[in-house]
Each structure stands twice: as structure tokens, then as C-alpha cells.
């Protein structure tokens, strides 16, 4: 029954940073994924971002039978109709606009739909979750949020500190997203979010995408599907079932040098271990029930087993993301 339901669903993965190739596109297709929010840049600046977009243009050209670009929420519905996987571009840091507010609209015109204000560290816009002091959203950050709201670019606070995240929720005239994180009450990682943040996010019409990255989960790679679905159920009680989705944070087939680029960028000469432990100096062992995108039906089955009804499962697996993006992506009318 759950497998039949899964095939009917619009399934949205709110974040992946995989080593994209045809095999991974085939896995997304096999897992019934309608759209994936693909991180195209971390610390890359303007020219490098353009090169990443050019690489994706070649992916679209060479794999047009499997994937298509998502330039609006309507394209997600079209991808479902065509049986293709839609790909939405996102940035996990604000390096892509450098120090130029005019680049927000330019990048949005190039279909960069979602941008994190920070990646772990203090940025020009806000404070990351690994800094000792969170000074909140900066003066530039306030202007950037206003411009992102105007242009229809989604504010993502997945790697930001508590105060900065609460600031962004309050400052943004449009709902924001935390595309890939979990409640800190479920697992105490600096990247995970407090109930205070999650409540504010839910009340403001924002969205949380649950992460399946083992370091964000209780018992790490040994986290059970039941435990994951229990976390989803508890968060649904806290935020409302309309305010949650999936953002796997799947980093598939990536070499360790990519992990080093994510963590270190150009700012550090030493390996940054984030949580302070060398145990996460490499990629974690994958979850037994979610090794790659072909395992998406397992999440659907797990949610049904936990007691969610078909309508709620459809929301969590993709409709909440779709509804959120239908509101968030159009540029603001003048």
C-alpha cells in the first residue's frame, strides 16, 4: 500500500549536495523524487557560481530524459507530469553575492532560488552556528533579506546561530526555510535547532526540512527509521504538520576533499572539525534505511507505520515544500 501511495506523491528533497552524474539522476528517478534542491555553491564567489551553473546546463542537456531545471513552483508540478526530476538551485552561503546587494537579483534571474545567509561562520549577512557569540543579522543582512524578499529568493538559515535565525524570521516579510536540520531536543548538535526557533518558524509560516545526515541524528548512522519518524511526529506537534518536510542533506559519492571544501573553504589552513571531534573528519556511514535516493519509499512507509494518514504523509513528503515555494518564489509585486 505505502509503495503505491509513494508513486502518486509529489516528493521533494529540500537539500542534496551529491557528486552529480547520470547514476545519481537515475537513483532520484527510481526513488520517485519529483524535485531536489541542489546545492550548487558553498564558498564559491560570483565567477565560480557562473561556472557551476554552466556545469548544470550541461547536465540538463545530457540528461534531458531524466532531469529538468526548476524555474518556478509550476515546474515542480510539470516535472511530476513528465515523470522527470526537477532540480532547483541553492547556495549554502552568501559568498555568491560577495559584497554586492545587486547580485541577489542577478543570481535569482539565473534561477538561484534559495540562499543561506551563513555557513557555520559569521558572514557579511549573519552569524553561523559555530561562532561563540551570535551578533545577529548584520546591517548588510537586513538589506539583503529585504532584497531577497523582493526578488523571490528564499532565505535559508540551516547553518545559522540562534539569534541570527530568530532575527531572520522576524525581519523577513516572507516565510523563511531551514532546509536541512533537526530539533536539538532529538540530537544535540550545534547545527540542530531549538524549540524556540522551530516554534517561531512554524508560527511565521516557514518550513523545516528534516535532515538524514547521520551526524544530525540520535545514534548517528545507527538511528532507526522508527526514531526518525518519532522525531517527525514530535515536531509536527510542536510546529504543525503543514510546516515540515524533508531535506536529506545527502552528500553522495563526494570525495573527502569536498568535505574539506565545505568545512574549510579558503578561510582556514587547518581542518575544521566543526563540533570539535575528529570522529567527523570523514563522511559518516550511511543509514541502513536511507543509503541513497532509491530509499525514499522507506520514509513514506515509516511515516505511515508511525500513524500519519495519507494526507499528512503527502504533505511531509513534498506538498508542504511545494506550497511554501508557490508563495515564496514569485517576485514581489510592485
What is the CATH homology-level superfamily?
Metal-dependent hydrolases
Note the main sheet: 6 strands, parallel
Identify the CATH architecture: Alpha-Beta Barrel
Distance between the termini: 47 Å
Query: What is the count of helical runs?
Result: 12
Q: Based on DSSP secondary structure assignment, what is the total number of beta strands?
A: 9
Low-confidence blocks of residues: none
How many discrete domains? 1
What does this structure look like?
The chain is of the alpha/beta class and 334 residues long. It has a single domain (2-328), classed as TIM Barrel. The chain is 41% helix and 12% strand. It contains twelve helices and nine strands. The protein has helices at 2-8, 22-30, 46-62, 73-82, 102-109, 139-151, 162-171, 195-203, 225-239, 256-264, 296-306, 310-328, and strands spanning 12-16, 35-41, 67-69, 85-91, 112-116, 154-156, 177-178, 207-210, 244-246. The strands form two sheets. Strands 1, 2, 3, 4, 5 and 6 form a six-stranded parallel sheet that branches. A three-stranded parallel sheet has the order 7-8-9. Helix 2 (22-30) links the parallel strand 1 and strand 2 (35-41). The protein starts with a helix and ends in a 6-residue tail after the last helix. The mean pLDDT is 93.
Summarize the structure.
It is built from 12 helices and 9 strands.
Amino acid at each position: 500500500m505505502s509503495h503505491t501511495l509513494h508513486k502518486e506523491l509529489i516528493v521533494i528533497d529540500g537539500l542534496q549536495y551529491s557528486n552529480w552524474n547520470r547514476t545519481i539522476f537515475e537513483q532520484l528517478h527510481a526513488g520517485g523524487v519529483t524535485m531536489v534542491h541542489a546545492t550548487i555553491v558553498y564558498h564559491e564567489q560570483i565567477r565560480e557560481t557562473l561556472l557551476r551553473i554552466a556545469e548544470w546546463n550541461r547536465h540538463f542537456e545530457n540528461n534531458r530524459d531524466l532531469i529538468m531545471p526548476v524555474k518556478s513552483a509550476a515546474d515542480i508540478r510539470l516535472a511530476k507530469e513528465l515523470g522527470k526530476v526537477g532540480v532547483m538551485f541553492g547556495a549554502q552561503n552568501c559568498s555568491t553575492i560577495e559584497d554586492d546587494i545587486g547580485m541577489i537579483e542577478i543570481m535569482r534571474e539565473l534561477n538561484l532560488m534559495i540562499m543561506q545567509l551563513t555557513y557555520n561562520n559569521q558572514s557579511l549577512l549573519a552569524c553561523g552556528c559555530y561562532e561563540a557569540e551570535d551578533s545577529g543579522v548584520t546591517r548588510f543582512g537586513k538589506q539583503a533579506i529585504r532584497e531577497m524578499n523582493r526578488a523571490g529568493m528564499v532565505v535559508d538559515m540551516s547553518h545559522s546561530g540562534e539569534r541570527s535565525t530568530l532575527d531572520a524570521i522576524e525581519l523577513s516579510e516572507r516565510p523563511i526555510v531551514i532546509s536541512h536540520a533537526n530539533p536539538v531536543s532529538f540530537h544535540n548538535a550545534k547545527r540542530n535547532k531549538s524549540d524556540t526557533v522551530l516554534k517561531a518558524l512554524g508560527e511565521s509560516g516557514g518550513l523545516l526540512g528534516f535532515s538524514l545526515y547521520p551526524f544530525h541524528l540520535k545514534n548517528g548512522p545507527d538511528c532507526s527509521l522508527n526514531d526518525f519518524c518519532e522525531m517527525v511526529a514530535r515536531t509536527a506537534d510542536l510546529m504543525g504538520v503543514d510546516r515540515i518536510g524533508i531535506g536529506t542533506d545527502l552528500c553522495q559519492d563526494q570525495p573527502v576533499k569536498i568535505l574539506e571544501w565545505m568545512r574549510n573553504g579558503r578561510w582556514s589552513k587547518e581542518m575544521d572539525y566543526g563540533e570539535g571531534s575528529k570522529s567527523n573528519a570523514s563522511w559518516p556511514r550511511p543509514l541502513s534505511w536511507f543509503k541513497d535516493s532509491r530509499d525514499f519509499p522507506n520514509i513514506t512507509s515509516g511515516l505511515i507505520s508511525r500513524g500519519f494518514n495519507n494526507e499528512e504523509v503527502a504533505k511531509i513528503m513534498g506538498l508542504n515544500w511545494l506550497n511554501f515555494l508557490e508563495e515564496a518564489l514569485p517576485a514581489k509585486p510592485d
